[in-house]
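Thread: "does anyone have the structure for this chain?"

Original post by V.I.:
We have the sequence but no experimental structure in hand. Need at least a predicted one for the grant figures.
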Amino acid sequence: MIQRKVQKATRPTPAAHRPHSALALAALAVMTVAVTAGCNGDSLQSSDPAGIVVEGWIDSGRFPVVTLTRPIVVTGKYQSLEQLESYLVRWARVTVSDGEREVVLTGHKDKFYYPPYVYTTTEMRGEPGKTYRLTVDCTDGTHAEAVTTIPQPATIDSFRIAGTATSDTLRQLYAYINDPRTEDRKYKLFTHVLGAPYGYRSAYLGLTRTDLLPPSGEISVNRGRLYSAQHFTPYFTTGSSVVVKLAHIGDDAYRYWRAFEDMADLSRNPLFPVTNNLEGNVKGGLGYWFGYGATYYRVTIK
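Reply from O.Q.:
Generated one for you, tokens below.
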């Protein structure tokens, strides 16, 4: 059992900082529901989608990021999974306001995200305690908006790396959250293995609350699950470098991620099909816009 002080991450390179989650989680969650309910070989059931799916977040000290897609509706019509890119929304007007000024986000293709198209700006960084309003206006008249507040950043005191019973080259990573226990705080973990595609992913079972933490503050830090992968391990390979993102989140984000983790587990069980969209905080669309009180740490797995 190895105990080591945390290595606070230097500012990640552009490739390392770009999420998915990056899975584009709100969009992927809706897509996963459709794929799970309507798969047939390499095809999925679909119809002409209406509405908008928003996945957006603004971290403390970082720029806002938004991805937009059309939802996939499960019907009797099929199309190839390779055609999912056709659901990207590329020509929307996306703005973020902090109550004092409003900035327009620029859309561009980015292979480090999935879906590989994002809206962002370098003219605004998230500040803890501030409230941010996102508005989305599409060329077809679709309008969506959401409001979020960035909590104070959460911190990790140290990491522990432990061996696993099944492999000599895999390791379990643990983090020790160093936050006041007098407050009701909620946390979400994201991880990125440097060199792996899609940047940060939602850490498997990486959601907790203050009242669920043991006295030591220990929480397992697992790999993010790429839901198209056939095989998955929550452990990290020796020699790899992992960037851990710990986010202090609000109640709406906690509800979303709790439902997302349940959906991710149940969608793989044919006896418990997932038929409902995830409940986000976007008015006029599906998905979410969340503020994260985030800190980043880089750990070398030994």
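V.I.: this helps a lot. The first strand starts at residue 2 and ends at 5.
O.Q.: and Confidence is low (pLDDT under 50) at residues 1-5, 13-49.
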